C-alpha cells in the first residue's frame, strides 16, 4: 500500500524534479497527480515510465490525496497551501511563503527532523531557501560540537535558482555573444553570461537583499537564533549547482582535522578535501547528486576558533526537490501521513 500524492507546480524545474526523485527513491506511491495552473492543463510530464497530464489546481479535489508537494510562487502558496491543508493532506511547500510562520515547521531532515511532529498545526511544512538548505546541513554537526558564534557566507548561485527563464537567459546570452552579439537582459538586471551579479531578490532598507535575509532568518529558526550570520548572495553564470564560501567562528576550539571527521560522519554530507589542484568539488560535479559536498576545510588564523569551508550542492535537488521528498520520507517513517 502506498500514498496518494499530488505535485503542484509540476511543469516547473523543481516540480519536474520532485516527480523524478519520488520515482528515483521509490517513495510508496499508489496514485500520482500532476497539478498546475489552468494554462498548463494537459501539459505532459513524466513520472518514471509513465506520462502524466497536468490537471487544473482550481478543479482538483485535494481531499482525495494524502500528501502534496508544492513548488509555486509565494503568492500562490499563501492562497492555496491553507486551503489544501484544510482539505486533509500535508503540504510540503517549496516557496518562501511559510518559512518564518511560527506555526509551520521549517525542515531539513538532517538538521531538525523532530520539527515534523508539529506539522499538524496547519498541515504545512516549509522547505528552506536553496542556499540555506545546503548551508545548515554543513553547519549543524559543527555547531553541535563547538557552538558557532559567527558565520560569514558568500554564495555563488546558479541561474537555475531563477527557474527556466534564468537558464534560458544564460544560454541565449552566451550564444549571442559569440554569434549574434549581446542581447538585453530580461530575467536578470544585468548581463549574466561571462559576468557575476551581486544581487538576488529585492533590496531591503538595510541594504541587504531578501535572499540574504532568508538565509540568516532560516538558519536561526532551524539551528540557533544566537548565531551571528552575515551573507552576500551572488548570481554566477553556472546552470545548476550553488556554491558557498563559509567562514565560521566558534565559541569552543575545533581543529580542521576533527571538523573534517565530524563532517565525514554526518548524514547528507560528503567531504572531498585533498590539497591538490583537483581535490575539491565544483557545482558541475555536484549536479544530479543528492548530498551536500564540503571541500577546502582549513583553519582561519585571524580569529581564536575559526574555520573556512567550501560548500556545494545541486540546488534543484538538495536545495529544493530532494529536500521536499526527504521530508515526505521522514513523515512516512514516523507514520504522520494520513491513512496508508
TrEMBL record:
Keyword NADP: yes
Keywords associated with the record: Amino-acid biosynthesis, Diaminopimelate biosynthesis, Lysine biosynthesis, Methionine biosynthesis, NADP, Oxidoreductase, Threonine biosynthesis
UniProt key word Oxidoreductase: yes
Pathway membership, UniProt: Amino-acid biosynthesis; L-lysine biosynthesis via DAP pathway; (S)-tetrahydrodipicolinate from L-aspartate: step 2/4; Amino-acid biosynthesis; L-methionine biosynthesis via de novo pathway; L-homoserine from L-aspartate: step 2/3; Amino-acid biosynthesis; L-threonine biosynthesis; L-threonine from L-aspartate: step 2/5
Any one Pfam family match given in the protein's UniProt record, by short name: Semialdhyde_dh
Binding-site list for phosphate: 99
Documented EC number(s): 1.2.1.11
Record field: catalytic activity: L-aspartate 4-semialdehyde + phosphate + NADP(+) = 4-phospho-L-aspartate + NADPH + H(+)
Positions bound to substrate: 157, 235
Coiled coil stretches, renumbered: none
GO terms (BP aspect): 'de novo' L-methionine biosynthetic process; diaminopimelate biosynthetic process; isoleucine biosynthetic process; lysine biosynthetic process via diaminopimelate; threonine biosynthetic process
Active site, UniProt feature: 130, 242
InterPro entries, A to Z: Asp_semialdehyde_DH, Asp_semialdehyde_DH_beta, NAD(P)-bd_dom_sf, Semialdehyde_DH_NAD-bd, Semialdhyde_DH_dimer_dom
Annotated function: Catalyzes the NADPH-dependent formation of L-aspartate-semialdehyde (L-ASA) by the reductive dephosphorylation of L-aspartyl-4-phosphate.
Classification via HAMAP family: ASADH
Family label: Belongs to the aspartate-semialdehyde dehydrogenase family.
Protein name: Aspartate-semialdehyde dehydrogenase
Species of the source: Phenylobacterium parvum
Gene name of the record: asd
Amino acid at each position: 500500500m502506498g500514498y496518494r500524492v499530488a505535485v503542484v507546480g509540476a511543469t516547473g524545474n523543481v516540480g519536474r524534479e520532485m516527480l523524478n526523485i519520488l520515482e528515483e527513491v521509490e517513495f510508496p506511491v499508489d496514485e500520482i497527480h500532476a497539478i498546475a495552473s489552468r494554462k498548463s492543463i494537459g501539459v505532459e510530464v513524466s513520472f518514471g515510465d509513465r506520462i502524466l497530464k497536468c490537471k487544473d489546481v482550481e478543479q482538483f479535489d485535494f481531499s482525495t490525496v494524502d500528501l502534496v508537494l508544492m513548488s509555486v510562487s509565494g503568492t500562490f502558496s499563501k492562497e492555496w497551501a491553507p486551503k489544501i491543508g484544510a482539505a486533509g493532506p500535508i503540504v510540503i511547500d517549496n516557496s518562501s511563503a511559510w518559512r518564518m510562520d511560527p506555526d509551520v515547521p521549517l525542515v531539513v531532515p538532517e538538521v531538525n527532523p523532530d520539527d515534523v511532529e508539529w506539522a499538524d498545526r496547519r498541515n504545512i511544512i516549509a522547505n528552506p531557501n536553496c542556499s540555506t538548505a545546503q548551508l545548515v546541513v554543513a553547519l549543524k554537526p559543527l555547531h553541535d560540537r563547538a557552538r558557532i558564534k559567527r558565520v560569514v557566507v558568500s554564495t555563488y548561485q546558479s541561474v537555475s535558482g531563477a527557474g527556466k527563464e534564468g537558464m534560458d537567459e544564460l544560454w541565449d546570452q552566451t550564444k549571442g555573444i559569440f554569434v549574434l552579439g549581446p542581447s538585453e537582459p530580461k530575467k536578470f538586471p544585468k548581463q549574466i553570461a561571462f559576468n557575476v551579479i551581486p544581487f538576488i531578490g529585492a533590496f531591503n532598507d538595510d541594504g541587504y537583499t531578501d535572499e540574504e535575509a532568508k538565509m540568516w532568518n532560516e538558519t536561526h529558526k532551524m539551528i540557533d537564533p544566537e548565531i551571528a550570520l552575515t551573507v552576500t548572495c551572488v548570481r554566477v553564470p553556472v546552470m545548476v549547482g550553488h556554491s558557498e564560501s563559509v567562514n565560521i567562528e566558534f565559541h569552543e576550539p575545533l581543529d580542521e582535522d576533527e571538523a573534517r571527521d565530524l563532517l565525514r560522519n554526518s548524514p547528507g554530507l560528503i567531504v572531498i578535501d585533498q590539497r591538490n589542484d583537483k581535490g575539491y568539488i565544483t557545482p558541475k560535479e555536484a549536479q544530479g547528486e543528492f548530498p551536500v559536498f564540503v571541500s577546502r576545510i582549513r583553519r582561519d588564523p585571524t580569529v581564536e576558533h575559526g574555520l573556512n569551508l567550501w560548500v556545494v550542492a545541486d540546488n534543484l535537488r538538495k536545495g529544493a526537490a530532494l529536500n521536499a521528498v526527504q521530508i515526505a520520507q521522514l513523515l512516512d517513517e514516523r507514520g504522520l501521513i494520513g491513512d496508508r
